[in-house]
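Data card: per-record layout.
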Amino acid sequence: METYRVEWEIEIDAESPEEAAAEALRIQRDVNSMATCFKVWDELGEEMIPVDLTELDQEHLPTLEGVIDYLERQNDLAFLAYRRLSGGSEPGMHASVRARLAGEAYSIWTGVGEALYKAKEAAKNPGPGVTYIDTIQGMLDRHFGASKVK
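The structure for this 150-residue chain is written out next.
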């Protein structure tokens, strides 16, 4: 097995380096993200190979078990964010901002929970015709709206 250095670049307008990094992470984790172009360097750092994963075929999609594992982690994080934001005051955060963010965290938590339920149902009862990725992606698009990063 070889070791590669993988780079992903994006330009982001932000108030601070931390805010820029947080936005980049949000974009990377967005299930609808089109941020799929990478620079991959060989083990010696001599050759750079551009890799565009936009056109994934079915054999490169994650397994259903991988999707369920990912959704379970996201569900836990969204729930913790909701509990923290709805359960008291955050230092330096206005109450109306905290309430709005708590509402958004709740929406994400319920949306991810629905996707997790659908993924587990797909694992129990695989159906013909539509892949589980299409089913879950469609549900997330309906819940959160399709937002493609260009």
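Known properties of this structure: Residues 146-150 have pLDDT under 50 and may be disordered. Residues 38 and 116 are 29 Å apart (CA to CA).

See the next section for split statistics.
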